[in-house]
Structure formats: C-alpha cells, structure tokens
Amino acid sequence: MARNLTDNRTRNTLVMIVIFGLCSFFYLLGVWQKSGSGGGDGIQTWVNEQTKCAQLPNLSFETHHSASNLLNDTDNSKIEPFKPCDEQYTDYTPCEEQSRAMTFPRDNMIYRERHCPPDKEKLYCLIPAPKGYVAPFRWPKSRDFVHYANVPHKSLTVEKAIQNWVHYEGNVFRFPGGGTQFPQGADKYIDQLASVIPIAEGKVRTALDTGCGVASLGAYLFKKNVLTISFAPRDNHEAQVQFALERGVPAYIGVLGSIKLPFPSRAFDMAHCSRCLIPWSGNDGMYMMEVDRVLRPGGYWVLSGPPIGWKIYYEGWQHSKEDLQNEQRKIEQFAQLLCWKKISEKDGIAIWRKRLNDKSCSMKQYNPKGVKCGLTSDSDVWYKKMEVCIDPLPNVNSVSKVAGGQLEPFPKRLYAVPPRITLGSVPGFSVQSYEEDNKLWQKYVEAYKNTNNLLDTGRYRNIMDMNAGLGSFAAALESPKLWVMNVVPTIANTSTLGVIYERGLIGMYHDWCEGFSTYPRTYDLIHSNGIFSLYQNKCQFEDILLEMDRILRPEGAVIIRDKVDVLVKVEKIANAMRWKTRLADHEGGPLVPEKILFAVKQYWTVAKTSS
C-alpha cells in the first residue's frame, strides 16, 4: 500500500507539472501572437509560410472559422453557369443605353445622364467580346494605336478626319494626338498652356477634361505627370470614351447636364474645355459654378474654341460676331461673379484662375446674384441636382491663405499628410491612422506581387479600386505604367474621396448596385476590398460580379479581399462566370478570418460562343 501511495503521488505531481507547463506555453504563445513584434516575428512568418493554402480550391475553412453566417443557398448549392448575352450587347452600357435615354427630356442634356434599368430589365448574362478581340497594346504604344477588332467603329475616322482625332489604317486605329481645337497635336497645345500654367512643376497634378473627344489631351498630359479624368456622353460621336480607355487614358461616360459631377468639392488642379459644346453662358452660369465647385482654390480653368477668339475666327464658326461677343461677355460676367481672375487670352485660348479663399473676394458678398450654396457635405453629390449657387470655401484667417490647406507639389503630395486629415475634416481618421493605412497597404501590395508578379510590369494599365478608402492601394502601386480609378462607394460610412484627390490621385463616387459609367472591357485589373460585406444587404452579389465581369477585359485579373464566409459565395458565382479562382490566406496567416480571392477572367468571344 505504501508503494501504491508513493506511485500515485508521483503520477499526480507529473500531471500537475505537465498541465502547468502547457498552460504557461499557451499563455506565452498568446502574448507573442497578440504583440506582433519582437523575436517571434521570424517564427510567425515561417509558420504562416508553411500553412499557406496550397490546393486552394479544396481548402476547408471550418477548422478555423464558423460558417454560421453563410446564406443558406451557399452551403451546398450549385450555381448554374451564366450564359453569354446576345451579340447585340457587345458594347452594352446599362445606365446609358440609347433606347432608354430617348424616353427622357432633352432639356439640360437630361437624356444623356445616367438612367439605369429597373431590376426586371437587368441582364443576367455575360457580355461577349467582339469577334477577333485581342489584348490591347501596352502603354505607351496604346496611346497611339488601338486594335480595330476591339472597338470596331469607324464613324469618327470620317467625321473628324481633318481634325486629326483618329485614322483607320489596316487593322488598327492610329491616334495622331490631334483635337478639334489642336489639329496640329496635343504636345504643342500643352506647351501653350504650360507657358501660363505651372504644369511641369508638380503644382498641377489632377485635371478634368469636359467633353473630351478621344481624350488626346489627357493622353499627352501623362508626359507632364498630370492625371486627367476625361468625360463625354454616349452620343452620335460613337465610342469616344471607349477609344480613350482602350488607349489607356482615364475616362468615363458623362455629361454636364442637371446632376452634379461625381466628384467632391475642391478636387482638381485644372479643368479644361476645348470646343466641348457645353453652354457655359446659359443656365445663369450653373455649369461654371459646378466647375468652380470641383476646382481647388487657386486652380485653373481653360476654355478654348468658341466664343474665345471670336474676333479672328468667327467666320469659320458660322456664328455672327454679335452672338459670339454676347456669349463671351456672359462668360466673363460669370467668371467675375465667381471671383476668377483672367490671367491669359491668346490664340483662341482663355485661362482663368480660381480665388484662393472667400476673404479675397469681398465684392461677391454684395452681389445679389452671388448666392452661396447651403452648407452641405462636399460629398453629397450622387444624383443631386446642380444649383445656381456658389460653393462656399473653408474659412481662413488671412487673405493669403489657401482655403482648405496648401498642397505639396507632386510627387511629395502622394505621401504628405492631406490637409483634410490634418484639419480633422474626415471623421474617424487621424494623422497616425493615415500613416498606418499607408504602411498596411504597402505590405498588402507587396504580398499581391508575390502572387501576381505581373502587377507592376505594365501588363495592367487601367486599374480600378472599388472601395478605395484613403487611396493607399493606388499610392503603393503609383507608376507611369498604370493608373488607378479610386471609387468611393456612395454608401461608405465615411467619404474619403477628397483625401484621395489631395494625394494627387483620381477617382469618383459610385453605387455598386448600379452599372458603372464605362464601356465593357475597359479595365485590366479590379481590386475589391470589403465591397461584398458592404453591400451584403443592399443588392445581390450577382449584380456586382456581373458588372465586374462586364468592365473587365478578357484575361484581366481580379483581387477580392473580404470575410471568408462572403468569399465562399463570391467564389461560386465567379466560377459560374468562367473565372479561374484561387483562394488565399490573409497576409497575417490562416487564423485571420479575412481572405483574398484571386481570379482571372477567361478569354472568349462572340465567335467562339456561337461556334
């Protein structure tokens, strides 16, 4: 009995020691994991590397995460493959379709604005590429050449032949760089502007080209490190925006009509109109007031073509001297009302500069026509009517101060703390969180490159970030080889698009329950961070994914970052759309519930579908 008691005591002691040791080990392991720093980082990195998803399509997440929040139809259901749409929808733009547009009023170009189909008219099929579609030329060759098979529309080659917009040569279109107002080429035209505007000094980084044609101005401004968003309606000038994007130039289908532009206030360093046919002298100056809203304090407005230079060119414009003179007089009056200073008028080009602040323009306060707009958020623009009023600028304590804060010249502007952050104008963000966001996305982008080593090689020129946040994804990718359209969803908790523009990047507001204002096959890579979680109770995932498929080029890439339960459903739909997918762990390892879905859209065309 004595020996048995001794054995029991020994056994109990060993059990206690083992339990204590295990508890201590797991406590220290938990502290190490929570800290994310110190000597354990190397081990953690090694562990993460060893536990990366290898056979990703067969990966089961149940060991790490609960799937209790999955929608019922994603557990074991099979999604039927989506069929191709009819060939007639090759250039389908859901919110700018001609047949629907013609049912709306023509006043103020309302019929050319966005008019999206109701749910019962939405297409639930895959938009086909035209027969013979091939990958676009790489930049900078794409600036000058576009495959005819990709945009098989010749009308502009005839209509704009003498203006050097575009020529058809063999199986390609050639873009000489001309425009209606600069048939000798955009380079010479830009040099004229640069003699007045500090374009080459990094002070002008973001520009807006209204009524852009095929966006040759934006294409050639890249040489000056200027990012230009160009827009034009989908009208009788067939496929002009489609040509712009096929060339690798930022553009969207849009018009100055009755609705505010999808940009925040104080966004652009320069706005431009070259014979853009916008009635600047009409509507009590409303269109000039909208340009004033989106121009940064101290920004420039360029107007070339009628009525500027009417004394010399009126005979060729087929308008009377009196009409042209009266039109320019009204424009000058509205410019004075807005406190713009005219700094140049020469060779049919006039340039004004916007006021730095409201203190510098006391006369406006006494002008009964200079009504200030109400104090609303500078992001409250989606489907909001334009008004005949002047957008107020942030207060300053001196007439020499720039309202809203002075920006650094580019490229310093890219990582300098934006004034909206410094001044606390963006709820939930501080200088510290801004800098942390930059570091985080630099880490994420480096991880993306390890998976897709073509990311910054020029293979992807037109890139879209569907939920851009502070623009840190685009900042981490910044390169002359590419540009990023930073989209801030209209339902986002905080509007950050103003910050994105203060960084010298471009973007726009959009509601992803609707079609984006672009042609099919216009983006090479689409990045989505949390979009499906954001829209989970707003619209169907199929609507968003089919829109992504529409605007993505064949063999284009997709990166979707979201919660694992959301991505399970997204991946099933993606596979039903002929995408090849790969699910990967978060950069922090397999225990992080957020995952990344990499996908590639497969190549197929009308001909292959029908054969």
Layout of helices and strands:
Elements: H1 2-35, H2 40-50, H3 98-101, H4 141-144, E1 145-147, H5 155-159, E2 167-169, E3 172-174, H6 186-194, E4 206-210, H7 216-221, E5 227-232, H8 240-246, E6 251-253, E7 268-274, H9 286-294, E8 295-304, H10 310-317, H11 321-337, E9 341-346, E10 349-353, H12 362-365, H13 419-422, H14 431-451, E11 462-465, H15 472-477, E12 483-489, H16 497-502, E13 506-510, E14 523-529, H17 531-534, H18 541-551, E15 552-563, H19 564-576, E16 579-585, E17 594-601, H20 606-610
Parallel strand pairs: 4-5, 4-7, 5-6, 7-8, 11-12, 11-14, 12-13, 14-15
Antiparallel strand pairs: 1-3, 2-3, 8-10, 9-10, 15-17, 16-17
Describe this structure in words.
This protein has 611 residues and is of the alpha/beta class. Among the domains are: 183-360, Vaccinia Virus protein VP39 (Rossmann fold), CATH 3.40.50; 411-601, Vaccinia Virus protein VP39 (Rossmann fold), CATH 3.40.50.150. The protein contains 20 helices and 17 strands. It is globular and about 105 Å long.
